[in-house]
Design goal:
- The chain is of the alpha/beta class.
- It has a domain of 77 residues.
- Helices cover 35% and strands 25% of the residues.
- It contains ten helices and eleven strands.
- The strands form two sheets. A six-stranded mixed beta sheet has the order 7-8-9-3-10-11, sandwiched between helices.
- A hairpin with a 2-residue loop joins strand 5 and strand 6.
- Helix 5 crosses helix 7 and helix 7 packs parallel to helix 8.
- The longest helix has 18 residues.
- It is globular, with a radius of gyration of 19 Å.
- The two termini are 29 Å apart.
């Protein structure tokens, strides 16, 4: 088991009092692909960041169990977390424009990720970086390695982020909306790339997304989050026939080329979903 979360609660102190954001979430993952779907603000990214201990100091985190490969994340020191973050668990964020350093070349940033976990000389790290850029199907990796982030496209920037996360050979890959800033064609290419790399390396994948059809095609299991709760967990192949009213509501709100509607329905919410 790569990670196990049991009864996770996350909240924040505010001027008006304590604000709960994640309420009793439980999930676990082995060497498989787990998707988390739900609306913005449902707690998807907070759950993933709690697993990596990347939440701000004002966050209050409680859980019966929050473990990565048997390591208790809640009591882990920062030194222990540095052996997990990046090295054993890679985290691909949403938009490379805000994740890559604008004043350093692409190659130097990938090489830095390599050296941080594997050591070696600067020259060896740069050679490894070029190999990684080639692995994520970047054409002319030497030229791209010498480019700055603003000189590459959004899709290429996302490939660079994937190369950085793959540098230490992680066991788990967390992808938080990895294609949200890309067009449909590039989205498909990036997801095919992630799928190939995860399968070839035998990694576990936690994919956070708003796109239900994408997750149903790409993952093994899907957890549906609503207002800080996991309201349903289902096999990805059965997602389109899910029974929970919230999941059905999300599915019904999606436009369809096969069955066009003059007006998309509005999701009707029920307080009973949170009980």
């Amino acid at each position: 088991m790569l990670f196990e979360i049991n009864n996770l609660h996350i909240g924040f102190e505010s001027r008006t009092g304590f604000a709960p954001a994640v309420k009793g979430v439980s999930m676990k993952l082995g060497t498989e692909k787990l998707g988390i779907v739900g609306e913005s603000g449902s707690g998807k990214s907070l759950t993933a960041r709690a697993l990596m201990k990347l939440l701000p100091s004002q966050a209050r985190i409680e859980a019966d169990k929050l473990e990565f490969d048997g390591i208790d994340i809640l009591s882990a020191s920062e030194k222990q977390m540095r052996t997990i973050r990046g090295k054993r668990a890679g985290f691909i964020l949403q938009d490379p424009k805000y994740s890559l350093n604008p004043v350093k070349t692409v190659g130097s940033q990938v090489a830095e990720a390599w050296r941080a976990h594997k050591g070696g000389s600067k020259r060896a790290a740069l050679e490894a970086a070029i190999n990684l850029l080639e692995m994520v199907k970047i054409r002319d990796p030497k030229k791209v390695a010498s480019s700055y982030p603003h000189e590459v496209s959004g899709g290429m920037g996302q490939r660079v982020m994937i190369a950085m996360m793959l540098a230490p050979d992680p066991e788990l890959l967390i992808a938080d909306e990895p294609t949200s800033a890309l067009d449909a064609t590039v989205q498909a290419e990036i997801l095919r790339l992630i799928e190939e790399l995860v399968s070839e390396r035998g990694m576990g994948l936690l994919l956070i997304s708003h796109d239900l059809p994408l997750v149903s095609h790409f993952c093994d299991r899907v957890a549906v989050m609503y207002a800080g709760h996991v309201v349903e967990e289902i096999k990805a192949s059965e997602l389109l026939s899910a029974q929970h009213p919230y999941t059905r509501g999300l599915l019904n709100c999606m436009p369809s080329l096969m069955h066009p509607k003059k007006r998309l329905p509005v999701l009707t919410r029920d307080p009973e979903w949170l009980k």
